[in-house]
Every structure is written in C-alpha cells, then in structure tokens.
Amino acid sequence: IVLCASSQALIEKAAALAQAKFLGRVARASLGECIWFGILENPPFVPAADSAATSDLDEEALWHILRRVAQDDAALDPLVPPPGSKSIDDILASARARLTRIKPRDAFDECVIFNNPQGAVLVDIRPAAQRHHYGEIPGALIIERNVLEWRFDPRSDARLDIATRYDLRVIVFCQEGYTSSLAAASLLDLGLKNATDIVGGFKEWKDAGLPTTGG
C-alpha cells in the first residue's frame, strides 16, 4: 500500500488509520515526507483461494481511510451533517422502500403458529422490558434485535434450525414498527428475500384485537 497526502499531518493521520484498519496485518511500514508505505499480509483465517475477495475488502477499507481523512481535513461545521451522511428518517424510508410491509391481520393469517402449516415465522425483536410491560404475541419467536442476523443467516454457525432456506418467510415486529423495518431490511441484505415487518408493530396488533398475553 502506498498513501500520499498534501501535508505531513494528513499522511500521519492516514497512516494511523491504516495501521488500525489492518491491525496485525502490516508486516512492514515506512513513513516519509507526505508518503506512507505498508506491506500487508493476508488474514490468517482466509484461504489462498479467497484472496481476491480479501483484496476487494481491502480496497474498500482503503477508500474508507481516504474519505475519513479528507472529511476531517475539510474543517466541517460540527452542526452541519457531513457529506454522505443520512438522517434516520432517510435510512428508515430507504429500508421501507425495499419491503412489502403487512398489516397485523395479514400477518396473523400468514403465520404458522395460527394454524397455517405452510406459514411464516413471526419474530418479536423487542427487549425483555418492553415485552414485560406491553405483553407478547403467543407463539412468536423471541429473537432480540442484537442477535437477529446471526439467528437467521443460513451461513451462520449460530443460526436457528429453521434458518436453512433463503425463501423463509420471516415477519418481524417491534413495539411500533420502526426498528422492525430496519431489522427486516437487514434480513433482506442476508438474502432472505421474503422478510418483512408489521405496520404499527405490537401496538397495532393489540389494538386490532389479535391474540396477546401479559402486559
């Protein structure tokens, strides 16, 4: 890797980021006047046959370093959103644009736990405190948000027994239908093409008079 910059301060910042980004992989490095050289080793866990994929990831990491240094150098107004950033409303809208969201009654009709043998898997991603306070949907799988992807990725060693197919219908819900949209979009990223969430979440489900317990 060869990095160049217009000032010594910038190259030192870029070099520090590179050392951190490629932690344990920089075999040799040299910092000069506005230039940095580094020799990278492949990660020990990556087979030689996968070196091309590693190279693509390394290139992505390098571009991240350059963008980060350039943004820091631009003396951005801390009260103005940085270039390329998105508001949570934008992120949510992008996620929902990818989903075919369903209403509580439609989710009820689809789910295997409500006597549809070919039905969908209903997943409650709310934390325990919300489930205790507001109640639960009987029979729904409780998979909290922080482990959702690992439980449903067919390639994950931590996946559920049912998570073997990419056409698995997973219907996610949270309390009001916001976090669930981001979670369902993340499942789409894993390749679960039929993942979606419930409009209005548990609150709208309960308001519709559908089965609940506790709360």
From TrEMBL:
Signal peptide, first to last residue: none
GO molecular function terms attached to this record: thiosulfate-cyanide sulfurtransferase activity
A Pfam family this chain is assigned to: Rhodanese
Rhodanese domain: residues covered: 116-214
UniProt-listed PANTHER family: THIOSULFATE SULFURTRANSFERASE RDL2, MITOCHONDRIAL-RELATED (PTHR44086), THIOSULFATE SULFURTRANSFERASE_RHODANESE-LIKE DOMAIN-CONTAINING PROTEIN 3 (PTHR44086:SF10)
Identification of the protein by name: Rhodanese-like protein
